[in-house]
Design brief:
The protein is an alpha/beta fold and about 110 residues long. The chain is built from four helices and five strands, in the order E-H-E-H-E-H-E-E-H. Strands 1-3-2-4-5 form a five-stranded mixed β-sheet. Helix 2 links the parallel strand 2 and strand 3. The longest helix is centred in the middle third of the chain and has 16 residues. The radius of gyration is 12 Å and the shape is globular.
């Protein structure tokens, strides 16, 4: 599912990949059965490529990372969460356009 630019994250590597990241992280909480998640997947991949080195893009399959999903109160998917310095700084829920995602991450890109 993920590209070379997107990192699959689960309960085991969430801390090392997201919370301990030097870069801001855009975390896409998704599931294989979620149609809206599949709709935004190409946009997420394009953003991961375009902003490589500026923001880290991680994907969390909620069916495989129940603890992380629970810890961050993920109730609906897709949910996009931005983490900076180990903290949640912003959250967006629902299938949105690539432009909306770029506007969402813009303030957090160095």
């Amino acid at each position: 599912m993920s590209s070379n630019y997107e990192i699959e994250v689960d309960d085991n590597n969430f801390k090392s990949e997201v919370l301990d990241s030097q870069l801001p992280c855009l975390v896409d909480f998704w599931a294989q059965w979620c149609r809206p998640c599949m709709m935004i997947a190409p946009a997420i991949e394009e953003i991961a490529k375009k902003y490589d080195g500026k923001i880290k893009v991680c994907k969390v399959n909620i069916d495989e990372a129940g603890q992380v999903s629970s810890d961050y109160g993920i109730m609906s998917i897709p949910t996009l969460v931005i983490f900076k310095d180990g903290n949640v700084v912003d959250k967006m829920v629902g299938a949105v356009s690539k432009d909306a995602i770029e506007d969402f991450i813009g303030p957090y890109i160095n």
